[in-house]
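Hi R.,

As promised on Friday, here is the backbone we talked about, encoded as structure tokens. Could you run it through your design pipeline when you get a chance and send me back a sequence?
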């Protein structure tokens, strides 16, 4: 009997994630590397959050958003990385139907949150460099909280669109997902039927979030560049630009990988290449962000030295 007669209920109760590789030597190597990366991710982002909370020197809008970016990175990575590590230890990595939906929604939620946090940080730099006299008013605590609410609301809307689309899929046979997590495209490949309107809705929601935040970042940095070029003092130019380098690096890494995975045509790269870039996007970048902001940001380095100095005495 055709499983579609049962309505919008999938007969598949679990999925098998095929993972990154089946080479036993490579499995051991990747397990050690990814485990170390994950531990650094958790420790680095937790330390960033705690440092921003305890150091009055970092009680500024930029670091308010950075602390939430660190939180989003931790959850974003934790939604996928433990599952990858389990995949290295078992013959078949199984994930339940609802577990797969939760993983997909978590990735969509915090991916959208990160987009808006990075855009908010770009706007913060724009106000600090281009409108310093209005900075305290335009970037007040109330404004920061409002921007944060927008970020989490966008995440909720993005996750909701993917949740509705995922649960509209009918999975009636194949359950082997050619990826290391429940990504949207590989799930579509094993679905027996789908709702094209809901797929369009989730695609447009994500596309709008990415496009809108990219425009905000691009416009902000265009004005920042114009303002910096108008400065007569070389020292002033260097100081102004140095406050943006960490954020620009994080933005480039994040949107560069997003573009490769979700914007470029699928025919332009192989499935294995997609897995490698996805691994970098979901596992490596959350580790790099706290390192980027700690190594390239003088305020964070001085705040860390001050807090460590207090502990000694």
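Update: got your reply. Pasting your designed sequence below so it's all in one thread:
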């Amino acid at each position: 009997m055709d499983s579609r007669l049962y309505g919008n209920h999938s007969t598949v109760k679990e999925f098998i994630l095929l993972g990154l590789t089946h080479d036993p030597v490579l499995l051991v190597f990747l397990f050690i590397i990814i485990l170390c990366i994950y531990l650094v991710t958790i420790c680095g982002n937790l330390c960033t959050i705690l440092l921003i909370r305890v150091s009055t020197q970092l009680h500024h809008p930029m670091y308010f958003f950075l602390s939430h970016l660190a939180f989003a990175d931790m959850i974003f990575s934790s939604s996928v990385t433990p599952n990858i590590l389990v995949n290295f230890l078992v013959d078949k990595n199984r994930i339940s139907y609802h577990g797969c939906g939760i993983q997909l929604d978590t990735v969509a939620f915090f991916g959208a949150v990160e987009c808006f946090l990075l855009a908010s940080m770009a706007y913060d730099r724009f106000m600090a460099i281009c409108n310093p006299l209005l900075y305290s008013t335009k970037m007040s605590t109330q404004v920061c909280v409002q921007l944060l609410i927008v970020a989490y609301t966008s995440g909720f809307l993005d996750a909701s669109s993917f949740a509705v689309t995922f649960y509209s899929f009918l999975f009636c046979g194949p359950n082997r997902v050619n990826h290391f997590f429940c990504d949207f495209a590989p799930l579509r490949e094993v679905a027996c039927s789908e709702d094209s309107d809901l797929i369009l809705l989730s695609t447009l929601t994500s596309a709008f979030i990415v496009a809108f935040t990219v425009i905000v970042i691009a416009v902000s940095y265009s004005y920042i560049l114009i303002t910096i070029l108008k400065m007569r003092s070389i020292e002033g130019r260097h100081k102004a630009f140095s406050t943006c380098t960490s954020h620009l690096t994080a933005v480039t890494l994040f949107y560069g990988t997003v573009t490769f995975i979700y914007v470029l045509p699928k025919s332009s790269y192989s499935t294995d290449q997609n897995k490698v870039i996805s691994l970098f996007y979901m596992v490596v970048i959350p580790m790099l962000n706290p390192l980027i902001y700690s190594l390239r940001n003088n305020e964070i380095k001085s705040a860390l030295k001050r807090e460590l100095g207090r502990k000694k005495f």
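One thing I noticed while checking it: Confidence is low (pLDDT under 50) at residues 1-8.

Thanks again,
M.
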